[in-house]
Amino acid sequence: MSMNIFRFAGDMSHVFSIIILLLRLHVAKNANGVSLKTQELFLIVFCTRYLDLLIRFISLYNSAMKILYIGSTAAIIHMIRYREPYRSTYDRSQDSFRLEFALIPCLVLAMITSLIRGFGFIELFWTFSIYLEAVAILPQLIVLQRYSVVENLTGHYIFFLGAYRGLYILNWIYRAYTEKHYHHDYVVYACGFVQTALYADFFYYYFQSKYYGGTFSLPTSSAGFK
């Protein structure tokens, strides 16, 4: 994948989102409002997408970013699952999304896509990761809606995570116009737009809270800001 300003900005936005989440856990000393299920889904996404780490070297930047995503996400999961005070403050009753509701449909779609396109083992899991990433944020968004009030750093974490995907869409558009033999992958496009659309409601209330300067909260059944 060629580098351009949109891809680089997207990568940095993704990295920044992870740093913010780690900072939020360190500063707040609790896991309130953080979805472990979303982190587990993202770890599955990264592990299945980056299997090529085992068979080929693209660049130092490429390998470093992939290892960073896997390692940092695994570290966040370890903190919430096993370390205090995060373990005791993580509310499983609020983070009740069943992972199989995301994993099974995405695996079925990946198998169908792979059969149609004649993909091999590595490509099958790569395709699965594309489908899964599109919905991996759902448990986190559900948790935030249940808590209603969104902590500042948690809000920033999700904003930069959503911005990463939006910037990658701009990267695709830029490459389509600047690269003569650019390969269009409409599965990637569709999943990217679905993923971005899931953030739309969050973005609306996020920007509204910044504009009006109030407490950032998501609506349960009525207006979301106090």
TrEMBL record:
Keywords: Endoplasmic reticulum, ER-Golgi transport, Membrane, Protein transport, Receptor, Transmembrane, Transmembrane helix, Transport. It comes from the Eukaryota. It is found in: Endoplasmic reticulum membrane. GO terms for molecular function: ER retention sequence binding. It is a multi-pass membrane protein. One of its GO terms (biological process) is protein transport. Pfam families: ER_lumen_recept (PF00810). The chain crosses the membrane at residues 57-80, 101-119, 125-144, 156-174, 186-207. Its main location: endoplasmic reticulum. GO terms for cellular component: endoplasmic reticulum membrane. Belongs to the ERD2 family. This is ER lumen protein-retaining receptor. It comes from Nannochloropsis salina CCMP1776.
